[in-house]
Amino acid sequence: MTTWTPEELSAVGDAGELHIAPARTDGSFRRPTPIWVVRVGDELYVRSYRGPDGGWYRQALRSGRARIDAGGVEREVSLIEPTDDVDASIDDAYRTKYGRYSSYVAPMIAPPAVAATLRLEPR
C-alpha cells in the first residue's frame, strides 16, 4: 500500500479545489471535475455535491480509481468508501475549510453528500 507523503497531504489538503478524473471501464480517464477536498488526520476525502447521483461519483464507484490534481500534486488514486465512523470529522473539516461558502457547505454535510464520501488512497 502506498501512502501520502507529509508534503502531499499538506498540498492536497490545503488546496481550494481538487480536479478529479475517474477512470472509465476502458482505462481512460474522464474529463476532470473540480470538487472540494478535505483532510482528516492523514487521510484525504471528497464528496459529491449531488450525492450518489453525481456523474463523476457514479463513474468513480464503478472504476474505483481516478487521477487527481490539487495543490501541485498529480497522482492516480484508489477511491475507497470509508468504513470508519468519520462522517462527523469530515463534516467539521468541510465547515472549517469552506465555511466562508456557507450556502455550499450545507449541501456538502447533508445526508446525500455524506452518503457519497470517498477516501483518496495513492496508487
The main sheet orders its strands as 2-1-5-6-7-4-3
Percent range for β-strand residues: 25-35%
Per CATH, the superfamily is Electron Transport, Fmn-binding Protein, Chain A
- Number of domain units: 1
Euclidean distance between termini CA atoms: 8 Å
Biggest sheet statistics: 7 strands, antiparallel
Radius of gyration from the alpha-carbon trace, in angstroms: 13 Å
| Portion in helices | 25-40%
User: Strand-and-helix sequence, N→C?
Assistant: HEEEEHEEHHHE
Instruction: Provide a count of the helices.
Output: 5
Shape annotation: globular
Low-confidence stretches: none
Number of strands: 7
| Highest CATH level, the class | Mainly Beta
Structural class given helices, strands, pairing?
Answer: alpha+beta
InterPro entries: Split_barrel_FMN-bd (IPR012349), UCP028498 (IPR016888)
Protein name: DUF2255 family protein
How would you describe this structure to a colleague?
The protein has one domain (6-122): Pnp Oxidase, Chain A (Roll). Helices cover 33% and strands 30% of the residues. It has helices at 6-14, 55-63, 87-98, 102-108, 111-114; strands at 18-22, 33-35, 37-40, 43-47, 65-70, 73-80, 117-122. It has a seven-stranded antiparallel β-sheet, sandwiched between helices. The radius of gyration is 13 Å and the shape is globular.
